[in-house]
């Protein structure tokens, strides 16, 4: 049975862009695809809009007057009410370092200007399909991944460590879940890009694998000592492997 496009087609997208022409183009394309679009031209208006009505996705330009795109992203990612909203960042090609910083702040994806309207729609579709798929899977599931003091409630999107909830972004959550599901098996950065990010392999080829490293670093930082369980496999990628050194107790299930 083919799943319906309807749920994401009715999705609400907040577009934050001060360049009127780009904002109009983005709004036009997304509206034509059936999205409900609200456009704002600066960071302050973006924060107001976020408080007023929760969007399903934010398209956020990095370079904004007054309150920057990065600051808006930081607010989104630090407020529990907005933490899980996917964010697609628009950035200029020359801002290489800035782009890296933006991804480190927790953007789900980014598009470099100039971009084709079609590419934008594909990215928005992909991000929302992923979010929607997770909710659907979660609704039927109730699956729990557990390793020692680390517990991942796949349905509820809640990760706890020794009973304390970790505030993970959607990308960090998917990354941890993917690694834990493939526990003990090395995952290449490209595999993680296509699995945890669930983006088409054609798109994955254009995203630098360093993006994965940044998200792994942030995820580890939030996991304390358990962060060491995400091992770097030199020349290959990453592997989730609870090590004897910092394991408080055995996990319930047997290994191998
Ligand atoms: Ca701008």
Short description:
The protein is α/β, with parallel strands linked by helices and 256 residues long. It has 2 domains: 3-131, Rossmann fold; 140-243, Winged helix-like DNA-binding domain superfamily/Winged helix DNA-binding domain (Arc Repressor Mutant, subunit A).
Explain the overall architecture:
With 256 residues, this protein is α/β, with parallel strands linked by helices. It folds into 2 domains: 3-131, Rossmann fold (3-Layer(aba) Sandwich); 140-243, Winged helix-like DNA-binding domain superfamily/Winged helix DNA-binding domain (Arc Repressor Mutant, subunit A). It is 41% helix and 20% strand. The chain has 10 helices and 12 strands. A 5-stranded parallel beta sheet has the order 2-1-3-4-5, with helices on both faces. Helix 3 (43-52) packs parallel to helix 4. It starts with 5 loop residues before the first helix and ends in a 16-residue tail after the last strand. Mean pLDDT is 81; it is low at 1-8 and 246-256. The structure holds calcium ion (CA). Calcium ion (CA) is lined by residues 18-19, 61, 63-64. Residues 18-19, 61, 63-64 line the site of calcium ion.
């Amino acid at each position: 049975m083919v799943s319906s496009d309807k749920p994401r087609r009715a999705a609400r997208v907040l577009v934050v862009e001060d360049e009127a022409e780009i904002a109009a183009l983005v709004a036009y394309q997304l509206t034509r695809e059936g999205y409900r679009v609200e456009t704002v031209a600066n960071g302050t208006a973006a924060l107001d809009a976020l408080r007023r009505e929760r969007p399903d996705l934010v398209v956020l330009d990095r370079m904004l007057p007054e309150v920057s795109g990065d600051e808006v992203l930081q607010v989104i990612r630090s407020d529990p009410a907005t933490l899980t909203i996917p964010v697609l960042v628009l950035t200029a090609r020359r801002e290489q370092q800035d782009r890296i910083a933006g991804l480190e702040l927790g953007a789900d994806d980014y598009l470099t200007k100039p971009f084709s309207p079609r590419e934008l729609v594909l990215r928005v579709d992909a991000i929302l399909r992923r979010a929607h798929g997770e909710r659907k899977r979660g609704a039927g599931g109730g699956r729990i991944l557990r390793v020692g003091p680390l517990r991942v409630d796949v349905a509820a999107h809640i990760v706890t460590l020794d009973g304390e909830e970790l505030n993970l972004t959607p990308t960090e959550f998917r990354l941890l879940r993917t690694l834990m599901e493939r526990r003990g098996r090395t995952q290449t950065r490209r595999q993680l890009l296509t699995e945890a990010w669930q983006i088409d392999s054609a798109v994955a080829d254009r995203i630098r694998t360093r993006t994965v490293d940044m998200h792994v670093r942030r995820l580890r930082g939030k996991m304390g000592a358990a962060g060491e369980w995400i091992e770097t496999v030199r020349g290959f990628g990453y592997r989730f492997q609870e090590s004897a050194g910092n394991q408080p107790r055995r996990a319930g299930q047997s290994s191998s």
